[in-house]
Write a structure and sequence with these properties.
Length: 310
């Protein structure tokens, strides 16, 4: 038993060397180097805006954004796919073994990003244990914005131990890494159905979109993103955006904008709230932004609309 364990431990050390090459300008906030973790490595990094070097990973990399960065996007290309993902708290990226990334750009500084590295041996051990040759590190799909609460939960538990070492933390992390490997192999191998895009027939698509509409109307006073709306509909962001337009005739952005202005009109007509509170209740960041958007659509300022409303 000692030999395979030491092999995994050695692979874990290689993982840190990989990250030093991929993230030469990133800040290192916390690292598992020196923790004696076996079969897994983790780093918490801050990233400046800019391009990253091209790389072909020799291990599975799972990246988790722990904080939302308004307006920030990560653009990357690998396996012939180009992806552009907003950085929200809980956003997940998968980069499998052997998938060359030759175009990675971070649009704005990212303060806290968790990187978890699993050696290919982890997947091989599972394949041997269960006699399933389909379990391989190089058969995982290259995915961004993965809506997987289980991966997010495991990642956050590893993060907690990374930043606050506990007496039995190594045992927990190694067990979590095994569960993480199993989840990635089970849900995101090439032979598995795309869990991010469940089959949506004509009979249930309108119902899913109505759930998203109800979520929008309940949360108009805060910043909303397509990823969050898609999660409410149990769809991937791409699938959701396409179906939302088909069902409502509007893009998600257009629909949210129209709903916010409709709420603003109602509140203005009621004459109960100050203009600044109407703006904030309708999801605008300031009264000035609200006034500009309102006048662009209606041709009059909120104050003028309030005076003219019956």
């Amino acid at each position: 038993m000692a030999r395979p364990t030491q092999g995994l431990h050695g692979a874990g050390m290689d993982l840190h060397r990989h990250s030093a090459h991929k993230f030469p300008k990133a800040g290192l906030l916390a690292t598992s180097r020196g923790r004696q973790w076996q079969g897994v490595a983790a780093e918490l990094r801050s990233h400046p805006a800019g391009d990253l070097p091209a790389i072909v990973p020799t291990q599975m990399e799972i990246t988790l954004a722990t904080r939302r960065v308004p307006g920030a996007h990560v653009s990357r290309k690998g396996a012939g796919l180009r992806q552009r993902t907003a950085v929200e708290a809980g956003t997940i990226w998968l980069c499998p073994v052997g998938v060359g990334e030759d175009d990675i750009n971070i649009s704005a500084p990212l303060t806290e990003i968790l990187h978890i590295y699993l050696p290919a041996e982890r997947f091989a051990a599972l394949a041997n244990l269960y006699g399933d040759a389909r379990i391989r590190a190089d058969t995982v799909r290259y995915l961004a914005d993965v809506p997987d609460p289980l991966i997010r939960q495991i990642g956050l538990s590893i993060l907690s131990e990374l930043v606050r070492e506990s007496s039995a933390g190594r045992m927990m992390v190694e067990a979590a890494a095994l569960a993480l490997t199993a989840r990635v192999a089970q849900a995101y191998g090439h032979d598995r159905p795309d869990r991010a895009d469940p089959v949506c027939g004509d009979h249930d698509c309108p119902e899913r979109i109505q759930r998203a509409i109800a979520f929008i109307r309940d949360n108009l006073d805060r910043d909303l993103g397509v990823t969050e709306l898609a999660a409410a509909a149990c769809l991937s962001p791409f699938h959701f955006a396409r179906l939302f337009k088909r069902v409502t005739g509007k893009t998600p952005y257009g629909f949210v904008s129209a709903e916010r202005l409709a709420r603003a009109r109602r509140l203005l007509a009621e004459r109960k709230l100050p203009l600044v509170d109407v703006a904030l209740s309708s999801g605008f960041s300031s009264q000035a932004a609200f006034s500009t958007a309102f006048k662009r659509v209606t041709g009059c300022t909120p104050g003028e609309y309030r005076q003219l409303a019956p």
